[in-house]
Amino acid sequence: MPGGLIRPSRTKGEAGNIILELALTLPLFLLLIGGGLDLGMLYWNKHILTNAAREGARAAVRANADGTGRPEKTTSQVQQVVQDYLDKFNYKDIDGSRLVLNSSRFSYTWTPDGTGYLVSVALNQIPYKMMLLPDAQAVLPGGGWVADPIMNLHSMNTMSAEWSSPPGS
Fold first, then answer.
1. Among 4, 35, 113, 135, which is least packed by CB within 10 angstroms?
2. What torsion do the CA atoms of 138, 143, 146, 150 make, to the nearest 10 degrees?
């Protein structure tokens, strides 16, 4: 073909090979992308919980400014600080409603430590539902394994208290 484009020569079965390779690799590629997104969201949720516990601990260790050596915030006020942080990031429960902290999910404790007190704020049994990876079992051959899409996340932060007498004393 003078002056025209030169077309590469293809054999008869070459187009079918491309489609077959795509059909074999595309599900794996999509599974990898979905897994990456799922794990990224899991990391983001764990990051929010860690920061919420840190904000609660930071609020719990502050001493009252009146010089009495007593804590600035009560247990319920510390819990509210953590709840506000979770609300700020719109953290959801499994059913899609707002996650509400209760006594089984939130704890605020202090222990004597030679020179003062160590204050711990913990978030326990915070549910997180994986979105894409558990559903992938339906498209995989065999499908004999059953993945639990719900994980329980935990986070705890401990700091030294500025106060000298614990809450309630």
1. 4
2. -30
Q: What is the DSSP letter of 63?
A: B
Beta bridge partners of 63: 71
**Residues facing residue 35 across a β-bridge:** none
Contact of 93 with 1, CB cutoff 8 Å: no
Mean pLDDT of 76-80: 96
Report which of 50, 56, 107, 120 is spatially closest to residue 83, judged by C-alpha positions: 56
Measured in degrees and rounded to the nearest 5, phi and psi for residue 84 equal: -60, -40
- Interval 131-146: pLDDT, tens: 776 665 555 565 555 5
* Closest listed residue to residue 121, CA positions, set 62, 68, 70: 62
**Global pTM?**
0.78
102-121: average pLDDT: 94
